[in-house]
Amino acid sequence: MQMHERLPAGLLDRMRAPLTSFQSFMPTLRAYSGFSLRETACTRGATMGRLGSLEVRLARTAAEVRRAQRLRYGVFYGEMSASPDATTKIAQRDIDTFDAYCDHLLVLDHATLGRTGKPAIVGTYRLLRQNIAERHSGFYSANEFDIGGLMARHRNTQFVELGRSCVLAPYRNKRTVELLWHGIWTYVLQHNLGAMIGCASLEGTDPDKLALQLSFLHHHARAPEDWHTRALPHRYVEMNRLRRSAVDPKAALRALPPLVKGYLRIGATFGEGAVIDRQFGTTDVLVVLPVNTISARYITHFGPSADRHAA
Question: What whole-number distance in Å separates Cα of residue 112 and Cα of residue 109?
Answer without folding.
Answer: 6
